[in-house]
Specification:
Layout: H1 14-33, E1 36-37, E2 44-45, H2 59-71, H3 77-80, H4 109-113, E3 121-126, H5 129-140, H6 147-161, E4 169-172, H7 177-183, H8 187-192, H9 195-203, E5 210-211, E6 216-218, H10 230-237, E7 241-243, H11 246-249, E8 253-261, H12 265-276, E9 281-289
Parallel strand pairs: 3-9, 4-5, 4-8, 8-9
Antiparallel strand pairs: 1-2, 6-7
Helix pairs in contact: 2-6
Length: 291
């Protein structure tokens, strides 16, 4: 007969306590031997422990706590405190955060005057302070390991804003092949590359959401948008994007993903091209949104 040994109530907690103690000692030794260097200010620092907060958190507090979990070993406490989450009140279409912190979401003046081709855009934070530094390290300094925490954070915002069944297809905003060769990677693709794994875990199987790249391509090089006026930005992007497989997007509800949304010119042109090729609707998710 197989005998099942039951735990001793007096000693059950000893092994976990020792494990936790040794883990803390190990982490302290690693921090002493390999100190963290802040990606924003360059200072050497020791990450502070993040205690669990049992009280209910509002949207802003949840966003700040998530950012601190993702970046606590990459940004010093002072720079971490400079993160500005992109939370209400904001434009219900383009997602720009309003300066006034009172009131409900509503359309901004620009979206009233010139509605976008996408339904709405949502982002993790405002493109300022430490978020600028971390994104620039990711895009321009080859720190592609940052894709993992960014991906997790984006997925969290996705779950907050979209229900299962709202989206059929997730597409990264594409790079032109020449820029892709120079940079070595498309940062927007890295942000969603592991989403199939996340979707399977969260929805316990097939969610029905497909994550693809190569369907929307940039078929001609464009000058960097920085420095262009609003009208010139749109002209710079005219004819830059192409759908390679219209049947794969027919009537699909598409989520476009990018790293930074500035004037919305790029994602708006992508949305226009996708809709013209037969997509049902287009929405946008990005790491950061400029003011």
């Amino acid at each position: 007969m197989l005998t099942v040994r039951r735990g001793n109530s007096e000693t059950d907690g000893i092994a976990p306590a020792y494990t936790l103690a040794w883990r803390r000692i190990g982490n302290s030794l690693l921090e002493m031997m390999f100190p963290c260097k802040c990606l924003a200010c360059g200072e050497i620092f020791r990450p502070r422990s993040q205690d669990a907060d049992e009280r209910p958190l509002n949207e802003r507090e949840r966003r700040v706590a998530s950012f601190e979990r993702a970046m606590r070993v990459r940004l010093c406490p002072a720079c971490l405190a400079g993160f500005a989450p992109a939370v209400s009140p904001l434009c219900s279409q383009c997602g720009v955060v309003f300066a006034g912190r009172e009131g409900a979401d509503h359309l901004c003046g620009e979206c009233i005057a010139q509605p976008k081709h996408f339904l709405r855009a949502r982002t993790v934070g405002i493109y300022s302070g430490p978020l600028i530094a971390v994104i620039q390290c990711f895009k321009f300094k080859g720190m592609t390991a940052l894709a993992r925490p960014f991906s997790a954070f984006l997925f969290e915002i996705f779950q907050e804003n979209w229900e299962l069944g709202d989206i059929d297809l997730v597409l990264p905003v594409p790079l032109h092949p020449k820029r892709m060769r120079n940079r070595g990677f498309n940062q927007a693709w890295l942000l969603v590359r592991d989403w199939p794994e996340r979707l399977r875990k969260v929805y316990c199987g097939d969610s029905g959401i497909r994550v693809r790249h190569g369907i929307l391509v940039r078929n001609r090089p464009t000058a960097p948008q920085t420095g262009f006026g609003k009208g010139d930005r749109a002209a710079n992007l005219k004819g830059a994007f192409l759908v390679t497989d219209p049947l794969s997007i027919a009537r699909k509800r598409i989520l476009l993903v990018d790293d930074v949304v500035t004037t919305c010119a790029t994602v708006n042109e992508c949305a226009r091209v996708l809709l013209a090729a037969g997509a049902g609707q287009v929405e946008v998710l990005a790491v950061a949104r400029t003011l």
